[in-house]
Structure formats: structure tokens, C-alpha cells
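COMPLEX REQUEST
Ligand: zinc ion
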Amino acid sequence: MISPSLLSADFGNLQRDVEMINNSAADWFHVDVMDGVFVPNISFGQPVIKFIKKHAQKPLDVHLMIVDPDRYVESFKQVGADILTVHYEACTHLHRTIAHIKDSGMKAGVVLNPHTPVSLLEDIVQDCDLVLLMSVNPGFGGQKYIENTYNKIIQLDELRNRKNPNCLIEIDGGVSVDNASKLYETGADVLVAGSAVFGAQNPMETIEKIKGLR
Ligand code: DX5
Ligand code: ZN
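STATUS: Structure written out below.
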């Protein structure tokens, strides 16, 4: 699957870009929420997501890069999040947060920063609908893919096959037509792509191309 990241969309023409994704081979909308505290950048919050939801015809995959995400779980559900992912590094009571997301009627996922080992998921993976591995340090689009992510995908694939085969593996950061095929082969199920899609001459064709590499 492919989940184009709206962080690289043209915010002045957001409806146009949302409709482009509606009409493309994309599976989800990747929606990056940044608070300027957990990550050194601020993106957008619930009012913008509410507008995206109004036009989006595919699930909203909302990636929270914020401290204390528990406080906002219901509000993201209210504005239309279908999948809500929270950072391992931002949750003191991760098990409770995951249960909270599911109880609110959304799919729940955990995100790991590049330095956070997959082994820390041993006792939470059974509760996750997906795990998102950051393949760049979160905060900005257009960064270089970190090669060690392949090793983490192999470890995560082993872990989920053992404990929760239904858990999806999503990769976020530096994904392009050059590494998509190897990522899918290694075990990734969902690829997020921001600059590779919106920076392309033909975004719709690029979405199809990345998806076709699996
Ligand atoms: C980074 C965000 C990503 C970002 C990816 O913190 O989580 O979703 O949009 O952008 P690219 O695909 O350009 O690396
Ligand atoms: Zn993201």
C-alpha cells in the first residue's frame, strides 16, 4: 500500500491535492501532526484535518508527532482520523494509549524513531494494528532515507509474524521509486511518500509507480 504524505502538498491548493490522491492509486492519506515540542517543527492540527476529511475519499492515517497524545485522542477521532499512530518515545503508558485509541473507534499504531529498537515492542505488538518505523528523524519532509531501517524491518517482520501476523509494517521518510521495491521485499506493507510524490512532475504516475514496485 501507499500513503502519500500531505505534509508536502501545496497548502494553498489543499483541496486540489486531496482530490488528486482520491483519483490516484493511493490507499490512505498520511497526515503529519507536529507540535514544535516533540519535533522541531509545527505543521497543522484538527481544523485542517477536518477540512481534509470533508474531501478525502480514503482513510486518514494520522501520525502524531506531539507530546502527551492521550489528551487529543477523541478530538482526532472527531475530525475524521481512521488510523491514529503515536510515538513510543512520547507515551509513558503506551498500553493505555493504544487501548484508548481503539476504544475511540480507530485503528491504533505505534511509531519508532530511528534510534528506538524494535525489541521494545515485544509486549505491545499484539495490541497494534500497525507499527510505523521512522526511516528519517521526524519533523521534516525531504530527508535522506536511513539505511539501517532495512534491518529494523527484518526484526519487526519476525516479531509480528510470531506475535501478531495481522499487524502492518509502515515506513515513513525518504521513500522513493529507488528504494520502494527493496522496502516491500524486506517486509513493509505500507509506504509513506511525501516529497517523492508531490515533488514529482506527475504525482499520480509516481504513486502508481511506487505501488507497482511491490
Ligand atoms: C516526517 C514525516 C513524514 C514526511 C515524509 O516527520 O513523518 O511523513 O512527510 O516526507 P518524505 O517522504 O519527503 O521523506
Ligand atoms: Zn509521517
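REMARKS: The CA atoms of residues 118 and 156 lie 6 Å apart. The mean pLDDT is 98.
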